[in-house]
Amino acid sequence: MDILKTIFPMPPLASVEGRDIDTLMYLIHGLILILFVGWAVYFIVVLIKFRKTNNPKVQNTDSKASKISTVVEWAVAALEFLLLFAFSIPFWAVHVASKPEVKNVLEIKVLAQQFAWNVHYAGPDGKFGRVGAKFLDDNPLGLDPNDPNGKDDIATMNQIYVPVNKVVMLSLTSKDVIHSLGIPAMRVKQDVIPGMATMVWFTPTQIGQFEIVCSQLCGLGHYRMRGVLNVLSQQDYDRWIKEQKGSND
Considering only Cβ atoms within 10 Å of each terminal Cβ, which end of the chain, N or C, has fewer? Predict the structure, then answer.
């Protein structure tokens, strides 16, 4: 695995879930490297052994070589089967197809637009205010000004604040075109589709600031649709929440 890390360096890792993603990536690249080297060696051997000067007439009498090729083919199929059913499908079931079954998950809503990330926090009361498309002209999140649950909600743009060592679930949607939220350090990349809510989650393990990018070409300003994930200690995060004012104040 250390050799693979040297050959295929990955971005710095800062999430619990990212370890499984890195392992899967190394396994896939390791298999591809083995296949590439194997087929390259085979190709060179065939070019030399069966060149025209040594084999002016075509003959198919080497049964031993045929058996070896069959064994190799079955070995490759077995490796691909193992990679799919022992690693890929279980990873999908745990990290993509099912939501985390832990208490006190921090849910944050992200509304994408050309070319910014609008971030919506529930505020100190822990309840999200009601949102609707008809209110988008009044505020970027479309918060209903008459909903009491939204009075203390917090809004930021291109800045996501989360506590360290806590599962964070991002609920994503878009108000215009398809975007894609990418946080390389968390190994997060999720399409953001208008009219549809998608989910992605991660557990940050390091305090610091990490880049947020849009991984889907979304217009002329795509290059500047960037943000920052701020991972704070739990105390600093609680302090930050208390210091913010509701977006409707």
Answer: C
